[in-house]
């Protein structure tokens, strides 16, 4: 197999694959970053074309799609018969042009996403998702198993895998933002961050419950729910926005949530589950779509 791009992610991919016994050809624009990987099972190439043509499976771990196209332009390598796997972050619209390019050159295309930090690559904690033909995913099994404890093919449409990755990234940043704002509030209230962090896994059943209940209500568009009604959320959010302000947090998500709850209450909702806020996104999306 070949890895094109040995930045943080690409380097971790190379190490995990080489450690699992795979022979790995590599290329990177800045040679020092690929040369330091040289060793057992790792073969460093000076030219991208030589690295690509060294293997039937080629993983691209470059910054983004634009850079991937640029490297392919400059390499002008033979892609025929090769399985090209794109790992860079992007949006669904990025997928079709790259896939078309690979297929026009006689290659096959899989979309991939690594949903964890580079340190987790090669461990049970790493989760990877793929989009593309079942037989191509099967052909990649040695690699996917070297990279992650759990690997899932999301279907034959590579664009869907990218859309899934976008959703997962949006969730990740909501989590990061929540963590950062909580940390600021914890510091301002004198709650040691370690004490707070240790208790976070205990909230997991509550998170799963919110998602599980919310999914059912969103699908039915009936948000009737007697536990934790909007009226209680408003009371809590009134308290929290005051605390966030005193902690010096600008543009807190807590203020945004409060505005959304107030708007839902203006629309007549009271005892509903907080998932009713979904209707605000839906009507805004419909308005943008019909513009
Ligand atoms: N880091 C993470 O936690 C993580 C997790 C999942 C997914 N990802 C995604 O993985 C991709 C790579 O991320 P990374 O964290 O590995 O970033 P990185 O360490 O900055 O690596 C970027 C790679 O792209 C190459 N590159 C950038 N511009 C180039 C150009 N004009 N021509 C040729 N090569 C160029 C770099 O080569 P040089 O060494 O020569 O600069 C390097 O190999 C991104 O799409 C990222 O979103 C990252």
Automatic annotation (TrEMBL):
- At the top level, the lineage of the source is Bacteria
User: GO molecular-function annotation terms?
Assistant: oxidoreductase activity
Q: Which residues form the NADPH-dependent reductive aminase-like C-terminal domain?
A: 157-282
Give the EC number(s) listed in the UniProt record.
1.1.-.-
Presence of the UniProt keyword Transport in the record: no
- Which Gene3D superfamilies does this chain map to? N-(1-d-carboxylethyl)-l-norvaline Dehydrogenase, domain 2, NAD(P)-binding Rossmann-like Domain
Its recorded name reads NAD(P)-dependent oxidoreductase
Higher taxonomy: Bacteria, Bacillati, Actinomycetota, Actinomycetes, Streptosporangiales
């Amino acid at each position: 197999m070949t890895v094109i791009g040995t930045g943080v992610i690409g380097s971790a991919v190379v190490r995990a694959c080489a450690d699992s016994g795979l022979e790995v050809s590599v290329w990177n624009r800045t040679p020092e970053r690929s040369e330091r990987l040289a060793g057992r099972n790792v073969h460093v190439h000076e030219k991208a074309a030589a690295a690509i043509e060294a293997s039937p499976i080629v993983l691209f771990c470059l910054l983004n799609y634009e850079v991937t196209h640029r490297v392919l332009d400059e390499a002008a390598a033979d892609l025929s018969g090769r399985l090209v796997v794109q790992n860079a972050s992007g949006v669904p619209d990025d997928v079709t042009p790259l896939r078309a390019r690979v297929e026009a050159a006689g290659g096959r295309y899989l979309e991939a996403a690594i949903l964890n930090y580079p340190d987790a690559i090669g461990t049970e904690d790493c989760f990877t998702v793929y989009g593309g033909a079942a037989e191509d995913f099967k052909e990649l099994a040695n690699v996917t198993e070297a990279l992650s404890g759990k690997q899932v093919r999301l279907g034959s449409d590579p664009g869907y895998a990218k859309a899934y990755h976008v959703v997962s990234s949006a969730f990740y940043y909501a989590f990061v933002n929540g963590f950062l704002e909580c940390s600021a509030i914890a510091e301002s209230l004198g709650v040691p961050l370690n004490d707070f962090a240790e208790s976070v896994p205990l909230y997991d059943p509550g998170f799963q419950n919110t998602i599980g209940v919310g999914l059912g209500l969103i699908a039915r568009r009936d948000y009737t729910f007697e536990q934790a009604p909007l009226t209680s959320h408003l009371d809590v959010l009134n308290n929290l926005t005051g605390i966030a302000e005193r902690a010096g947090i600008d543009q807190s998500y807590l203020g945004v949530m409060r505005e959304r709850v107030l708007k839902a209450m203006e629309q007549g909702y009271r005892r509903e589950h907080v998932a009713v806020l979904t209707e605000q996104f839906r009507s805004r999306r419909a308005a943008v779509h019909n513009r």
